Amino acid sequence: MSSSAPTKEWLVHVPDFPGALDKRLAARPTHLGNLKPAIEAGKVVFGGATLSKQPAEGDAPDMTGSVMLIKADSEEEVRKTLEEDPYTKGVYSKLIGKCNIIQAYTSAMAIWFLSGDF
Fold first, then answer.
1. Interatomic CA distance for residues 75 and 60, integer angstroms
2. Spatial separation of the C-alpha atoms in residues 12 and 92, rounded to whole Å
3. Which tens digit of pLDDT belongs to each residue from 86-96?
4. CB 78 within 8 A of CB 16
5. How far apart are CA 113 and CA 40, in angstroms?
6. Which pLDDT belongs to residue 24?
7. What is the pLDDT of residues 4-63, one digit of tens each?
8. CA R_g for the chain
9. CA 20, CA 87: separation in Å to the nearest integer?
10. Which of 15, 27, 35, 68 has the CB geometry, 3.0–4.6 Å to 86, for a possible disulfide?
11. Residue 21 CB coordination number (10 Å)
């Protein structure tokens, strides 16, 4: 990787395997803790869970995977980032090969995450 900031943005969707919710929730604190420096460094622009449907008020969402926008110099660098994520140890593991990585462009930023209001 070069010493300058990556100029390419990648939209990433990684599906969860069936029954991954408990492992996802257990890994979430470490996953979010690791994201803060990546967001501050400008490597992760946004991220979150994908849902099977809009939950009714008061119902827990049915998470089906994750979506994120990552700044990196190459698709290989994006895959390495995914492999190092705490979710890899259970939620993504065997599905990294099935993820969709699409080069994209956006100018949005995850300001709410940096506020700590989550």
1. 33
2. 12
3. 877 666 666 67
4. no
5. 10
6. 84
7. 667 799 999 988 888 888 888 888 899 889 888 888 988 998 899 999 999 999 998 888
8. 14
9. 10
10. 27
11. 15
Chain-centroid distance, C-alpha 106: 16
Rounded Cα gap, residues 50 and 68, in angstroms:
10
One-letter amino acid of 37: P
Measure the CA–CA gap between 65 and 18, rounded to whole angstroms: 10
Q: Residue 115: which H helix or E strand, with range?
A: helix 111-115
Q: Specify the amino acid at residue 70.
A: I
Q: Tell me the one-letter amino acid at 33.
A: G
For the segment(s) 15-50+61-115, the CATH number from 3.30.70.1060, 3.20.20.120, 3.40.50.1980, 3.30.565.10 is 3.30.70.1060
Give the closest residue to 16 by CA, choosing from 53, 40, 50, 46: 50
